[in-house]
Design a protein that fits this description.
mainly alpha, three-stranded antiparallel β-sheet, 7 helices, 3 strands, about 55% helix, globular
Length: about 130
């Protein structure tokens, strides 16, 4: 789905989520917790955000912007688990749109494109499956 599939920013009558032209479903905006089940996406995000580079913003900048303290950042760097994964887990209630805004803020177009593709293509499939189980 892309922007032209969205009906002029109108909402469903019985929910506050966006209605899409090609569907009568209300699709809720995804939270970071919703993308945690997509192993391929997580792998890509870790590849892009875990490495340290002096001129490229990474997980550390994102986490700091969202209020993680210096001590917490240092602690996460020492853990065996991916610091990006830990950052995402700690912020699982935030929306993917907020994460996309961070990508824009830090000019991480590579990560932005990955997330936007996931929201447009994978999230509607996951949401449909998730809503059918409910």
């Amino acid at each position: 789905m892309n922007q032209r599939d969205v009906k002029d920013s109108k909402s469903c009558t019985d929910c506050s989520e966006t209605t899409y032209k090609n569907s009568s479903l209300c699709i809720s905006p995804p939270c970071i917790g919703d993308l945690m089940n997509d192993e391929d996406l997580l792998y890509t995000l870790k590849l892009k955000l875990d490495p340290y580079h002096p001129t490229i913003k990474n997980w550390r900048n994102f986490a700091s912007k969202w209020g993680m303290t210096y001590d917490e950042l240092c602690f996460l760097e020492q853990k065996q688990q991916s610091p990006t994964l830990e950052f995402l887990l700690r912020n699982s209630e935030q929306t993917v749109a907020q994460l996309i805004d961070l990508c824009k803020f830090y000019k991480r177009v590579d990560v932005l494109k990955v997330l936007e593709t996931w929201v447009e293509k994978e999230w509607p499939k996951q949401w449909h499956t998730k809503s059918n189980k409910a």
